[in-house]
């Protein structure tokens, strides 16, 4: 049941915020009325689009573009003013690509993350594996210092066969490699909850579709966008849904409903 204390986090890889805005993103966000929004792949600097349209919806906006133009980048929008905002994770390469952005809200924190893709070849797959190893250590050190965190974003990994339309055919594909899936097993084992699977065990629930072969119309997709909740937040989670009707990107968003913790438990 929704209560006045129920809050909503939306995570969405927009695959270019300017393109998504041209497809009605702002009006769609007005209707969804999320309290917190995490964007990935904004692919633009805030000087290149009208940030005032998001501010007019009541959001405090924090943009973290990549240094390379038209590439990567994250953002975090919130109707609550954050107590603190942290840009980056202290790794020169990943920070140059704008991959980790965090805001703190007292009894909880929210992180917008864009994990590297390895689909373009071995070099970027190596970067992806370096990021996974680095991020595990980063979160082990960070989490005791901050409030329990929601890690939102495009993780670029399908965790289990249920999360991909063709697990057999993709067993050697970046995003479904055994070593990537094993990383997620370990990462989630003790400290974090895959919030969508906490509420929904049904197959054919995806957040990304190839632009080829009419994949989206045939729902031949991958679930690679997640909201991980720190285990201490598990009792606060109320509902999690994927929103495939949103068509501003080759991804679709995910929405998590939760109740803000009343006390800080670090």
Could you characterize what this model shows?
It is built from seven helices and 14 strands. The chain is globular, with a radius of gyration of 17 Å. The chain has one domain: Endonuclease/exonuclease/phosphatase (Deoxyribonuclease I, Chain A). It has 266 residues and is α+β, with helices and mostly antiparallel strands. Strand 7 (109-114), helix 5 (122-142) and strand 8 form a beta-alpha-beta unit. The protein has a six-stranded mixed β-sheet with strand order 3-4-2-1-14-13. The protein has a six-stranded mixed β-sheet with strand order 5-6-7-8-12-9. The mean pLDDT is 96. The relative contact order is 0.16.
Task: Explain the layout of strands and helices.
Elements: E1 6-13, H1 17-22, H2 25-32, E2 36-40, H3 52-55, E3 60-64, E4 74-78, E5 84-87, H4 92-96, E6 100-104, E7 109-114, H5 122-142, E8 149-154, H6 178-191, E9 192-194, H7 195-199, E10 208-209, E11 221-222, E12 225-230, E13 237-242, E14 254-259
Parallel strand pairs: 1-2, 7-8
Antiparallel strand pairs: 1-14, 2-4, 3-4, 5-6, 6-7, 8-12, 9-12, 10-11, 13-14
Name some characteristics of this structure.
14 strands; six-stranded mixed sheet; about 270 residues; single chain; about 25% strand; 7 helices; alpha+beta; Deoxyribonuclease I, Chain A
Short summary:
By secondary structure, this protein is α+β, with helices and mostly antiparallel strands. The chain is built from 7 helices and 14 strands. It has one domain: Deoxyribonuclease I, Chain A.
Shape: globular
Number of domains: 1
| Low-pLDDT sequence parts | none
Characterize the largest beta sheet: strand count, sense, and whether it forms a barrel. Answer: 6 strands, mixed
CATH architecture: 4-Layer Sandwich
């Amino acid at each position: 049941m929704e209560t006045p204390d129920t809050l909503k986090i939306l995570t969405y890889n927009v695959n270019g915020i300017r393109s998504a805005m041209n497809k009605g993103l702002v009006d769609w966000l007005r209707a969804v009325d999320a309290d917190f929004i995490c964007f990935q792949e904004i692919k633009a600097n805030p000087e290149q689009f009208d940030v005032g349209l998001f501010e007019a919806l009541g959001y405090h906006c924090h943009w973290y573009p990549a240094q390379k133009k038209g590439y990567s980048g994250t953002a975090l929008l919130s109707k609550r003013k954050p107590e603190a905002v942290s840009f980056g994770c202290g790794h020169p390469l990943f920070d140059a690509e704008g991959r980790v952005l965090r805001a703190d809200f007292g009894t909880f924190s929210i992180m917008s993350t864009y994990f590297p893709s390895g689909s373009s070849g071995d070099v970027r797959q190596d970067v992806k594996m370096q990021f996974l190893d680095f991020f595990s250590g980063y979160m082990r050190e960070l989490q005791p210092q901050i409030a329990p965190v929601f890690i939102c974003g495009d993780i670029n990994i399908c965790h289990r066969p249920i999360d991909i339309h063709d697990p057999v055919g993709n067993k050697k594909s970046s995003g479904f490699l055994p070593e990537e899936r094993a990383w997620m097993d370990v990462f989630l084992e003790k400290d974090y909850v895959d919030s969508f699977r906490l509420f929904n065990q049904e197959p054919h629930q995806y957040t990304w579709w190839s632009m080829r072969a009419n994949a989206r119309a045939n729902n031949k997709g991958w679930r690679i966008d997640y909201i991980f909740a720190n285990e201490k937040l598990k009792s606060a989670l109320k509902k999690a849904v994927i929103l495939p009707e949103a068509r501003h990107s080759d991804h679709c968003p995910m929405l998590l409903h939760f109740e803000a913790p009343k006390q800080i438990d670090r």
